[in-house]
Structures are given as structure tokens and as C-alpha cells.
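Researcher: Here's the sequence for the chain we discussed earlier.
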Amino acid sequence: MRPKSKYKWVAKLLNRVPPRAKTKNTIKTKPAVKPRRPVRLKLKLKIKLKFRSKSKSSGASDEEETNASKVKKVTKGPDKHKIGSYGAIAIFRALRVNRTLLSLCLEYVAIDDSAMSALAAALRVNTALTHLSLVGNRIGAAGARDLADALEDSPDSMLIDLNLRDNRLGAQGAEELGRALRENETLTQCDFSWNQMGPQAALGLLSALRDNFALRELCVYGRDLAKDGTHYLANLDYDSAKRIVVALRHVNESFAVVRLSGARAVLPIDKMKTSRWIHLVDRELVELDGLVIAGLIPRNNMLLSLDLHDNPGLRRAAVLELLSVIRCCPTLRDVDLTNTGLFPEAGESVGELVGVNSTLETIKLHETVFSVQQLRGNRRAGEVPEVMAFSVASKHFLDRWILAKCLAVNRLTQEVNELRLPATSSSTKSAALVGVAANEKDHRDLITVNVCGRPLELYEVAFLGKKMLHHLHLGRVALNSCMLDGAAARALADGVRNHATLHTLELENNPLGPTGGQALAECLAVSSALTYLNLSWTQLGDDGVMAFREALERNKSIERLDLRGNELRVRGVVALAEGLRRTATLRELHLQWNTVSPAGAEALAVALEVNQSLTLLDIEHHTMGARGAAAFASTLARNKHLEHLNMCGTDSDDALDAGPGIGSKQAQRVAEALTNSNRSLRILHIGANRIDADAAARFGELLKFNTSLVALDLSRSGLDAKKAPRFFACLSVNKTLERLNLAYNRIGNEGLVACTRALETNRTLRELNLAYNGMTEEPLAVLAAKLHAPKRPITPTLEWLCLTGNSMTERTRQEFLALPQNVIAIELQDKGDEETEDVDV
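Model: Thanks. This is the structure I predict for it:
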């Protein structure tokens, strides 16, 4: 059938193009006119379609990338705006004589099988065309057969790129094209996606690559709607993964890229076989792609790094298969599977697969990068175990399992389980263990395990107690904010009780309750290695600390005990005081934010008269009143060992929340004791205790004679402008004080003038806090000028000065901020205010 007349212009246009001229025989008759160069045409006929269905979004690059199903295109009325098969036949006939056209694109122009015989005839004789795109037409199995015949028997063809995406090839058409690929020697890129081929047909195409030495890229993805509209036909499915791997293993080395699930899901087959690094980040890979990768990487004998993060389509089966084949990759060192769509149920399997791996170095599934061999205890000969600290979020369930499973097979843990210490110390290993146990202060070779900040289940804590805490070289365990209850504390105590090297146990901010406190007290009573126990904010109550009375008496190693914020009242504090009387090792006792009442304060004061080991006692936010303070004043006159005492009251300005404090009278008694008899106390915090100006000035007299005090806190103590000059006059002659806190007093401008004068004489003060003291511009400007002076009259030892909450101009403020930070640090604003300003900006 002859083509319609309206398409004759196409054939005429192609026939008019002159053949390529031979430049060697060209005779230049006119020098001014250049010879005509051969013309190469690129013909592209694309017709815009109007669809009844929803069109794809402007941001998408390919419709098959973003849509789960293929939208069937339906035109309005007859195809009067498409060239159709008749027009295509005219173009294909012109190709038989054309020698210049390189690329032909006929997309969505309603070409069917009837035009393929003309195309086949053209391809057999055409030697110029290299790129042919027939996307979105109606080419079926018959047309594919004609095209395959031409591709199979076209020795002069130069076609290298064939795009038949979104046609109707089907399984039979794919079989025909597979036959052509076995014989064709020119095609390097083929796109047969979205063609309703089915898994068997797609596998046939992949199998054909075994005999093809030219093809480098093949696309066979797609998930079309069946003709009856009831289900979807996927070119490849999950069950085809093993056969795909077999087919790809046997393709020739020239084959490079395959797309099995989407346009962006590019699998570099050549790199998977030979490259040292495989990075497929954010490629929209699905489970099928992951299984194919897992089947190919064991053949790579040089692979060092595998990075597949940000591919949520890689589900459980794919990731587990990837982790399984890692065992077969002795060279693989680093794996990144962040955001790969695993579920909590896969946690144990993931942990086991990673835990038993003997070659993998690092793996990342969420935010934490795990050093697998370090966790497993595999070290080189002669290496000392390093500190291992992990902070895993509670939502990162996979990281938690990996950590637990790796530590379960830790080599040192296994050595501990098999170790039997002989009675004598002749054994080298035994002698080394005894040496570590004897020298409790040498903790350089001990391991630290820090898993703070993530909730632990009871079985995980039991695992830690039985396995990890039996580690020979374990020195510190930190489980702060892990939501441990009483049962978890008891399970943990079983592992700590007889540990030979564990010196630090931190359980801060866990709801242990009275049961947990009793369990840890019993553990402390028999432990011979524990030196620091942190149980702050663990809701122990009085019942939870009653057992510490006996534990402190029996224990011979504990040095620091932290019980802050445990709602202790009279019974609990008295019990601790009785234990304090009998211990000979405890050096620090922290009881802040507990109700240290007058009776409790008296009990602690009596214990301090007997105890000779305690150097630090912290009872901040107490409620002892004048009665308890009187007991402490008497004790300070006789105690010769206490070095640090924190007896600050409440720092609240609310009268309803403010504690009774110790009052001015008892504060003066404390000052007298430190002036006349006590020579051991070096640090004293006595602020916020309802002290008036006279009592505060009395501490100034203390500075005149005391030679041991290096830090004094008198914040919120009522020191005013009248008594401040007297106080600072005494400071000017002091030769030992290094830190002074006078925040929230009322020294005013007169006090600042006296302070500036004292700083010109004093040569020891390093830190001074004058925040919120009602000072204004003039004396502050004078102080700034003296700090800027070339020969600074202010003491050169001053390193930190706080002037927050005082009134000054912007110029003076900038003068303070211009001071070199390496000389003196100036603080002019609260940290909370600074953060608020940053947010506002």
C-alpha cells in the first residue's frame, strides 16, 4: 500500500539531502566560496498527547519511577495528530537511501506492527543510523519478530541504541528480541521496560547476554496492568532473584549495567565483580535488587566497602541475605546499611550475623558505627584493650542487638569462662590478674562500657550481668538513663558482686526504687573492687538506703558514693551517718537534693567527728536550720580531715520555696571555727542560707587569717554596699583564695570600687563572680579601662570574671568583650538568655 500524499514531503526531504562529498577531488573554482560540508540531520517527530487519565507530575523524570502502576494512555477521538504506521513506513523507506541521519525518535506516534517490516528492510541497508527510539507505540510480538530478524542479519548496521520502552512486546516479543541479541554485534544499550513481558521473558533476555559481547546496558523493569485490568504483570519478581543471579554471573565481561526494578535502580554489574568500593546510595533499590547484589558480591575478591544507605525498599530478606554473604567476602571491611527498611523482628538475626563475622571491621545501621572486631575482643598480639563507649538511642533496636551479640562472643569473655585460677601465683596469667586487682588506682588498661541513654529490657540487663560484666579487663560500666527497675538492678548486682576489676558503676536517673537500692547495697557489701557507685536520682527513698549502713561498714574499697535526689529523710540520712562512722575508705559523700533535717545534720556532724577518711560532703538544698548548723560548727572546730563542704541552702527567690537556712548567728560560728581552729577545709559553699550583711562581712575577717581556704561561695548572702568595703579590704591581704562567688548580693557601686581596689593588691584570685549585684555604668567602665591598661594594675592571675545582670552601656559592654579570651574570660549574659537571643535572630 502506498503512503498517503501528506507524508510524501518527508521522503522528498530525505532524498534531497546530497551524499557526502569527497574532499580530496574537490576543485576550488571560487576562492571566496567555501566548499559545502556534508549535512547530518537529526529527525525527531514527537506528538503531544492529551490523556484522559491523570498525567505525571512535572518533577518526575520517568513515569515508571514514581507510579506503582502504569497509567494507560487513552487519546480523544481518532489519531489524526499522529503520523501512525503509514507515516512511519514513509520515513522507514526513506532511511533505505539516506546516509546522513544519525538519530531517529518516533515516540508516542501510534506505530504498530505493520510498519516494522519497512523498518527491518531499512536497517538491513542503512549504515548511518545509530540511535532509534520508538517509545510509547503499539509494537507487539509480530513487529518484534520483524525487528529481530533485521537486527540478527544486518552486517552493515551501525545501530547502537534501541529504545522500545512502553510498547506491547509481551513474552513472545521478548523471546524474539533475545534471539536477536545473541547474534547482534553493534547494540550497546537496549531499553525493553514496561512491555508486559513477565519474569520468564525477562530472564530469557538476560540469558541471551551470555553470547553477546557488545551490549553494555539493559533495562527490563516495569509493572504493567493486565489487559483485563484485574492484576499487575511485573517483568521481574522476588522469586526470580536466584535465576537472575545465575544469569548475571555468566554474562560477558563487557556487560556493565542492568536496571531490574526502576530507572534509578542502577546495578553496576561490572563493578560488583571487580571493584573495591560499591556505593549505591539513594538509588530506590528494592528487595529484588538487594538479593541480586547479595548473589554477586561473593564473586568479588577485592571488595573493601559496601554502601547501600538510604534505600528503604531493601527489606528484611534482602538485608539478611546481604549480611549472610558477608561471611563469604574475606576482604570486606566496611558496611553501611543505614535506612534500609528493616523491622524490629530482624534485630536478633542481624545481631547474630554481625556478631559471628570474623573479618568485618565496621558496620552502620542507624547512627552508631560499630567496630565489630573490637566488640568481639579480637585484638592483635600485645595490644591493650581500649575504651569502648556507646550511646545508642532507644529507637535503634538493630544497634542494640549488634552490641549485645558481639559482646556475647567476645573472646576475652570466653577466656574468663574457661579460666580457673590456681591456688599459687606461679602462673603468669594469675600473677597478672592479681597485679591488676591489687593496684586499684591504675585503670589505664581497663575497658569502659557506656550504653547510657537508651532503655534496656530485663533480658538485656541479665545478659550484661552474666556475660559482659565477667570481662577480665572491664573497669567502668555506665548505664545512666536506661529505665532500669528493681528487678534489673538485682540482675545487674549479681554480675557486679564478685567482679575483680570493675571500679566504677554509674546508674544515674533510673527508677531502681527501694528494691534496687537494697540489691546494690548487698552487692557493695561484698565487692572488693568497686570504688565509685553513682545512684543519684534513682528513687531509693529511706527504705532503699537502710542497707548501706552495713554495706559501708563491711566494704573496704568504696571511695565515692553519690545519692543525690533520692528523697531521703531522717531515717535514711541517719542510717548513712551510722555507716559513715564505721567506714575507713569513703572519701566523698553526695547528698544534694535530699531532706537533710536538723536530726540528720546532727547525725552527720557526729559521724564526722569520728570518721577520718571523708574529704568531701555535699548536702546542698538541706533543711537543717540553726540546730543542724550549730552541730556542724562544733564539728568543724575539731575535724582535721574534711576538705570540701557544700552546705548551700536553696537558690530559689520564692519565699514559699526557700528553706530555713542556717541563719546569721550559726554562720558566724562556722566562720569563727574556720578562723581559730580548722586548718583542713579548702572549699566552702555556704550561700543561700539567710545570712545578713554582718555575717557575710565576718567571712571577710576569715579571709584575713585563714591560710587554707581556696574557694568560698557566699552567693545570696545579703552582703550590701556598707559592709562590702570591709569585706574586700580583707580580701586584699589574702594570699590563698582562688575562687570567690558573691552573686546575687547587693554590693552596688561602692562595693565594686572597693573590689577593684582589692584586685590591684591581691595576687591569687583566679575566678570572681559578681553577677546581679546592682552595679552600674561608672565603676564598671573604670574596671574595664584598668583591665585594658598596658600595665594592668588588676591582679594578673584573674582568669574569669562574671558581671551578668549588672547595668552598663553598650560601649562598656564592648570594652569587656574586647578583652583577649586567653588572658581573661568575661561573662556578661546568662547562657539561657544567649540561646534565646540566637533563636530570636
